[in-house]
Amino acid sequence: MTAQFDVLGIGNAIVDVIARAEDDFLVAQNLVKGSMQLIDEDRAQALFAAMGPMTHTSGGSAANTIAGLASLGAKPAFIGKVKNDDAGKRFAHDIRSQSIVFPTQPAEEGPATAMCLIAVTPDGERTMNTYLGASQHLTSADIDRATVEASSIVYLEGYLWDPPAAKEAFVKASRIAHGAGRQVALTLSDSFCVGRFREEFLGLLRTQTVDIVFANEAELKSLYETSDFDAAVTALREEGVLGVITRSEKGAQVITREETIAIPAYPVDEVVDCTGAGDLFASGFLFGLAKDLDLRAAAHHGALAASHIIQHIGARPQKNLRQHAIDNGLAVEAE
Amino acid sequence: MTAQFDVLGIGNAIVDVIARAEDDFLVAQNLVKGSMQLIDEDRAQALFAAMGPMTHTSGGSAANTIAGLASLGAKPAFIGKVKNDDAGKRFAHDIRSQSIVFPTQPAEEGPATAMCLIAVTPDGERTMNTYLGASQHLTSADIDRATVEASSIVYLEGYLWDPPAAKEAFVKASRIAHGAGRQVALTLSDSFCVGRFREEFLGLLRTQTVDIVFANEAELKSLYETSDFDAAVTALREEGVLGVITRSEKGAQVITREETIAIPAYPVDEVVDCTGAGDLFASGFLFGLAKDLDLRAAAHHGALAASHIIQHIGARPQKNLRQHAIDNGLAVEAE
Questions:
Q1: Would A225 be classed as within a structural domain?
Q2: Which of A18, A20, A58, A93 should one mutate to test binding to chain B, selecting the residue with the greatest count of B CBs within 10 A?
Q3: Helix residue ranges, H only, A97-180
Q4: pTM here?
Q5: Does A48 map to a domain?
Q6: Which tens digit of pLDDT belongs to each residue from A14-60?
Q7: CATH code, B270
Q8: ipTM attached to this prediction
Q9: What is the span of the domain harbouring residue A256?
Q10: Rounded Cα gap, residues B173 and B103, in angstroms
Q11: How many of the other CB atoms lie within 10 Å of CB of A47?
């Protein structure tokens, strides 16, 4: 069956609140640079008060990936839970204004729309503090069978393992997708997230619940509890899934059972804010798969989209990525 | 008396909502590219719904200038009216988190905090649509005598002429400042704004209500109702005020009774969003005056700050401008 959607993203629906911070701020606030940690509402308020001038944009890992796919000209959809409050309306506006199908009903009561307080240090690294709020109330009931069945690839974020009910939604989505002959992709999200759910994530690979896995170097090493990157790659290769490993300025590797395809990072003048680098790499790579490009070309799309996102504050594209890809000599359809 | 504050800004306290848009969107929405127009709440809602994915930051012309001054290391203060709502709290947070003194009490009732819906076209030009909301309720009572008297320069935006009660506040601030031996600066804000209040603005210059005037080329031409830039400069010179004229990529001119000092624009890779270019030029120039730099050096600070702000979405600095000035070889204190 022809798919109506190229990719369906399922993830935490989050608004980002981003401020520049010095390294001293991370120390004073007891934050682990480059990580994502979960915080409660009181902590969110205290941290908000302590942070500097802020930029507010829509965020959420899978949602960022879907926004990137829309900007590249793909047809994506998104499932995630906001509350019907100001932040939730802004999130929904941003998604729908890119013509992304977003069937999830907002919560009318309960906690506020999820918020991620992001401190960006002068090196461009981002340190994230997530108040999950309404996104915790994503349940199996929000997994719309028709939308899942109509999507070539279902893309799930590992962060979904944090809100307990979402895990069940995740597994339901995977089952529907495979029943309809679709592919399922997972991003490991964060090395600490992998630490929390290592056995379950490995189980997802080994039970063929997911077909494609995205990870950065730290997440991959955490998954296999090794400091040896090559050993982790070998272990991943043996899982028999398609692996996509991002390595910041070292580029990326696509891992199949037969081969490793290494591609370089695009050069950038200045890394302003690396929030969303992995998310947008996934946008480009999934775009390539959706458009039947080869794996190397798909990875180049990922690298280009990532290089765009790290040159400004925020994890949503600030230019038309399809035009940007064409301007950089990338094919946007299979020849 | 030594001044406690280098510059006190008085202006509309506004949150910016910024989206990329194609030129066709401006045509469809009947917007005049590069201008600021006032809109009511219904129009704001309709335009919000029609716009693309958004970035939300604090804005407001004089407030942007003050934020730039704080980033440069000056001691500024700000007076402007928000409501005690989410947007107003965000605005106040952003101001105060830069250690800017902000004595104005928020409104507890009445219209929402002011919002500017900004469409940024691919050429980097910004087209602004302002819902004045709570900022209309700035009155003479909000002009805190002690803060005005303690400020070397009081900086007022022409946009204050739009909300009727603010005009009176403006004149009161000027009177207090001059009574304390301080200087008063005015930005003409927008060529259409000049069109609305031309005679009053000329009156401010000719009654010595203001000592320093900032304008871009279009505003200056509108002030003197001429298409001849040189004629407008000559007319301004005869007013006997210090004139600062910004000319986008052509740089800027400082106009005194005796001379014209022309300085070039700093080169930029890409103009992403010119929102705040004039505001940040004023930051740099006022910083120079506050630090007793000569007029040429002050203008270079203005040009550098403007070149920073136009390379990202939004009108607030995204790096420490004092360090940025040092990195670019500018003196930050008089020798």
A1: yes
A2: A93
A3: 145-149, 164-179
A4: 0.94
A5: no
A6: 999 999 999 999 999 999 999 999 999 999 999 999 999 999 999 99
A7: 3.40.1190.20
A8: 0.92
A9: 5-11+61-110+134-327
A10: 14
A11: 18
